[in-house]
């Protein structure tokens, strides 16, 4: 847990104060049995009212001060636990925002949701308990044993013998508990994954009548989570009855031995009461410790999962150079190959081409030919395995990442909208955009008339994932969002697939009039034949490049693609 140290050090003063108050509570609790012994032996048995009053008042004052200290300790403990959890959640989210696609492959979205919510909540609970009672429990055990030895070493020896056995038992319990709770959290990941998929694809489930299947799948995952949780909690709860058995047995032995010594007059009644009182407090502290250790086991498993996120190496790092485009070449691929991290064959192989400023280039090819991967390399969602990509005459990896991506407008295959208004979704790419800029972007994207026909126009609410809009409307809103950022390079990844031919033609005419370089991924003949240049990909390799006319004459694959849509 080395990564935890910086988070705790930010609140070291509050932690020290909380622990000091906890220690004061502990002192009050340890002093009470000793004072009670004096009250019994020197006051009650001798019928001395002055002594009874003196020790009684001391115990009352200490109890009130301990109560006040406990309230302040609770407040400070809650403050630290909430603050550290907040900092952890913020840093983890910031780390996730810097993840590349490779990092996201390792951590599924459902697992990240669990780590940012349930795992941090488990850690928060334990941190609060640590400052409130967790540190107090072992100290109470040690302090009670020490005070019992001080009262009478012979009887306290029984408690001293029992303690190592219980410590070894708890060490074994913790090791098993951490492993078990890791399995529980993974089962929770699975439940979240299925629930997330079902909520995201509810229309598809209804369309194919898969209610029963998905309900059964969710039931099975929930059943596994329930069984593993019950099994783990039952195992951890085993600690309490074992502790109670040993401690009650110790108290019985103490009372049995004390009986003979009371008759012999070698021990006072108050001393026996004090030792039994300390034994009872130890029993309470140890049973409390078993509960704390269960929380620790779960918190340790949860924090290790959070630590995996916080320490995950980011493979896409920003360069230091400002972008300077000094010639007509905007993008250049120099013998670029790419392998996914879990594959031993290339998705792209020896790719080499150049895109010039203000040129419209169409990227075509069969499904799985590597088109989407290629454009993700330009935005540095991945870095190439071999070769170099240049922006202007500068290697892509040497450039400032934020500046690079600010120059690129990107419209993905699946139009991704956020819950909020239409205005907020379009302004997502340019937070400072004025209403006039928004309207112009919508006019260029051929969506303005549709929006202005709505009752609330640009303030129309977009539901989660944009389900209240058609596919074509979502695509045009995504295109408007890319337009408003005034990009130098506009990448459209099959972004006109849901548009009719008339609307698409108007959109392409607007693109031709804009001062922008366009990389267009498409399968539609009506679209790519209008490009200045066409690049044909097949099985990760460039098979042909040229204009529509030249490819018709030179490429058999290209002629087959065109013929298939005739």
From TrEMBL:
It comes from the Bacteria. It is found in: Cell membrane. The chain crosses the membrane at residues 52-76, 126-149, 155-174, 238-258, 278-296. Residues 331-564 form the ABC transporter domain. The keyword Transmembrane applies. GO terms for molecular function: ABC-type transporter activity; ATP binding; ATP hydrolysis activity. SUPFAM superfamilies: ABC transporter transmembrane region (SSF90123), P-loop containing nucleoside triphosphate hydrolases (SSF52540). GO terms for cellular component: plasma membrane. InterPro entries: AAA+_ATPase, ABC1_TM_dom, ABC1_TM_sf, ABC_transporter-like_ATP-bd, ABC_transporter-like_CS, P-loop_NTPase, Type_1_exporter. It is a multi-pass membrane protein. PROSITE patterns: ABC_TM1F (PS50929), ABC_TRANSPORTER_1 (PS00211), ABC_TRANSPORTER_2 (PS50893). Residues 16-298 form the ABC transmembrane type-1 domain. Coiled coil: none annotated. It holds the Pfam family ABC_membrane. Keywords: ATP-binding, Cell membrane, Membrane, Nucleotide-binding, Transmembrane, Transmembrane helix, Transport. PANTHER family: ABC TRANSPORTER, ATP-BINDING_PERMEASE PROTEIN, ATP-BINDING CASSETTE SUB-FAMILY B. This is ATP-binding cassette, subfamily B. The lineage of its organism: Bacteria, Bacillati, Bacillota, Bacilli, Bacillales.
